[in-house]
Amino acid sequence: KPVLVLRGVERSYGALTVLKGVDFTLNAGEMVGLIAPSGAGKSTLLHMAGLLDSPTAGEIEIDGQASAKLNDAGRTELRRRTIGFVYQFHQLLPEFSALENVVLPQMIGGVGRKAAAARATELLSIVGLKERLHHRPGKLSGGEQQRVAIVRAIANQPKLLLADEPTGNLDPGTAEGVFAELLRLVRTTGLAALIATHNLDLARRMDRVVTLRDGAVVPA
Ligand code: ADP
Ligand code: ADP
To answer: Residue limits of the ABC transporter domain (predicted)?
Structure first.
């Protein structure tokens, strides 16, 4: 089942055309690697897939909904309901514990505190952070912080996970551990994941890899 579909997506900034007709489908349960040389338009593509930016031509569908048919409020609602995002630098709230960082987005999504805390505890335990629930991000290692960020991104049960270099800031051993957890979560939840990475070893272990070249997606 397609979760993310891009059809002939173009994006120009004035005279500069960054994306020149991107066609791409991501299905539920799939983990796809996105490889892009710097400046190729990776961030632009992820922003569009995350409904934070609109194409200058072409169509984007998330979970069967055409983004062009929605207004800004509709896109925001669709994004909040269906998309989780992981960044290279985790962007956790420094004043809050690991647990609270995973509880808050759920409460903003309308889940009650108790249920949110139960789910946060379960997810953090799955990624090996059962003993770290009450630590603030600053007291966690880089790999632990990124595990919290991943769990936070999926706490609201999104259908699509977009990750921009989720292990880019980690040493190879830690990156390996975080990637393994991410892969396990995707496998157990049936989430669709698009993972931008420079790490070809990790990319090879995903279901597919696509490369962004000359403004279009080519199979690797
Ligand atoms: P990547 O993430 O692959 O490094 P980006 O998507 O950030 O690439 O940018 C691709 C190209 O588009 C670059 O040449 C960049 O300078 C240009 N670009 C990105 N955002 C803007 C913007 N808001 N205005 C003008 N040019 C932009
Ligand atoms: P806010 O809604 O607080 O103004 P943003 O507009 O930056 O914040 O982001 C809205 C939501 O989308 C946030 O939950 C944020 O984590 C998420 N988000 C940010 N960047 C992306 C992206 N590229 N793709 C998908 N979701 C994103």
So the answer is: 4-220
Does residue 219's CB lie within 6 angstroms of at least one atom of ligand 1? no
DSSP 138: G
* C-beta neighbour count of 112 within 10 angstroms: 10
pLDDT for residue 88 is more than 90: no
Say how far apart CA 17 and CA 76 lie, in whole Å. Answer: 25
C-alpha gyration radius of the chain: 17
Q: Percent of the chain at pLDDT above 90?
A: 84
Cα–Cα dist 151/51, whole Å: 21
Q: Which of 214, 209, 201 is nearest to 39 (CA)?
A: 214
- Which ranges of the chain would DSSP assign to H, the alpha helix? 42-49, 72-82, 98-108, 113-126, 142-154, 172-189, 200-204
pLDDT at 167 exceeding the cut of 70: yes
Cα–Cα distance between 55 and 215 in angstroms, integer?
13
Question: Residue 30 C-alpha to ligand 2 middle, in angstroms?
Answer: 22
Other Cβ atoms closer than 10 A to 138: 9
Question: Which pair of tokens denotes residue 171?
Answer: 């040493």
- Tell me, what DSSP letter sits at residue 155? T
Whether 197 contacts 165, CB under 8 Å: yes
The encoded tokens of residue 145 equal 């912080």
Q: What spacing in Å lies between the alpha carbon of 78 and ligand 2's midpoint?
A: 12
CB atoms within 10 A of CB 212: 22
Rounded to the nearest angstrom, the distance between the alpha carbon of 188 and the centre of ligand 1 is 35
